[in-house]
Design a protein that fits this description.
alpha+beta; BirA Bifunctional Protein, domain 2; Rossmann fold; 2 domains; 16 strands; 37% helix; 21% strand; binds adenosine-5'-triphosphate; binds magnesium ion
Amino acid sequence: MITRPKGTYDIYGKEAKYYNYINAVFQRVAELYNYEYIRTPIFEDSSLFHRSVGETTDIVSKETYDFKDRGDRDITLRPEGTAGVVRSYIENKMYGDVNQPKKFYYSGTMYRYERPQAGRYREFSQIGVEAIGSDSPLMDAEVISLAYRLLEEMGIDNVTVKINSLGDNESRNNYREALIKYLEPHIDNLCSDCKNRYKSNPLRILDCKVDKDSEILKNAPSILDYLNKESKERFDKVIEYLTQLDVDYEIAPNIVRGLDYYNHTVFELVADIEDLGNASTVAAGGRYNNLVGNLEGPETPCVGFASGVDRLMIILDKITKENIDNKVDVYVMAINEEERITALKLVQDLRWCEIKCEMDTLDRGMKAQFKQADRLGARLLVLLNSEDLQKGIMTVKDNLTHEEVKVDENEIIDYIVSNM
Ligand code: ATP
Ligand code: MG
């Protein structure tokens, strides 16, 4: 038997319901905030990710799926969604559109060569937004509140936005120097990844998963003390807007995000739900004003977030109480060929009237069809028999009260629709 590749899984049954539900809610909420759908390729030129996400991030240094295609091109399966959207924005010269800022939402699979565990896969899905072209703190607040409301819409209430500012380039560089100085005497006590990060990307040490509880990191200087006046004022504005919008936030100076392209606002949405462990971070994002320029587009400020659909699915499964199994409204019972043809036409007509219905296609007998109707949770049964059909009559049985009513075949659709 051929099995699925390590780190992947099949989404079907209950999980497929959650998956579609999440995407449907996301589409509705993103459209309400006036974001437009964008779809970019699942694979891109490898250099796109090396130049955007950054060589020194875990994502690019250890986690990408890289291969040469038959034309000897270097290709990478996308590990995240932002780089592709920004590439598309530049390539399609969207900076020239009269309508600005450009606000996009996307949804799709991402690929990272990680050690698979609960809520962490090699193929996973993200939903996300990118607002391109506005440097206003209003835009940061909109993106964060969109993420927050989105989770609320799904019934995920115990969410905190952990927010921090990396400041502008000057603030970040000053902090970087202070952090290097602070860490120097401690570096031998940190994990091997952190020893490498110390040289290449010291800020990343702050969100190391191995050392996260060590005193060394807890006592590290806070970037918030290194923000210059402009960066500080900007951060205060974002916080003020979030307060106005009733977003539950917490200032968290250790959040630096794994990707190189962030500046100013960075944030993570964490769900307070038992047993989620490392998978409790359900969305993350920030401002990335340098990325468009780095990819040879005109300097353009951007802010966005991405949320892990697989983790949302795990949460929905934990918090959903009602049975979300496949229920139908109506089950039409037929035994012989004449009844079957009548049933076939009736279920089609009902479906066109938005009634979810089912009939037997496995040659089941009467008793087995009753059982099947129960399993499907049918509210109403339509019982067909040849004698009634001669008289133009059908029997409708209420599956809860067990009451039966004879209905004229010309009125059957109206009867069912009005009794749903
Ligand atoms: P983590 O710290 O959990 O590794 P990350 O910083 O790598 O997350 P991002 O790149 O910011 O994550 O991705 C945004 C969201 O996508 C995460 O908050 C998470 O919900 C989800 N996510 C990231 N990696 C995976 C994965 N391998 N499997 C499932 N979901 C993931
Ligand atoms: Mg990661």
